[in-house]
User: What shape does this take?
Amino acid sequence: MDRDWRADLDAWLEPFLAGLGHKAQRSMCPAYIAGLIGPGDRKSIQPIAARTGEVPYDRLHHFVNTGGWDSAPLEAALWRHADRLVGGPRSWLIVDDTALPKKGTHSVGVAP
Assistant: This one.
C-alpha cells in the first residue's frame, strides 16, 4: 500500500483515535480502516488481516467483535471535522449511501 496514502489516513484518523479509550484500540483502528478502504474485494476480518500483514487475525477479530467503546467522543470528532468541511450556520451535510454499488445477483438492492 502506498505509504503517502497511509500517512494521510493516519493524519485524518488522529482526532478520532483520541476518542478511543484504550491503547490497543488506537493501534488496531488504523489497520482495520485501511483494510476496509484499501485494495481487495473481501473486506471481512480474515482477508484484511492476511492482506495487510500488519496485525494478526486474532487481534483484529478481538478489536472488531469485543472492542466496546463510548461513541460520543468519536461522534463529536466527526461533527467537528464535518463542520470544518461544510461548516456554517446554515449548512447541512447529508450522507446517502444508497447509491453504492453492490455485488451479487440474489440480494435485495443489488444493482442490475
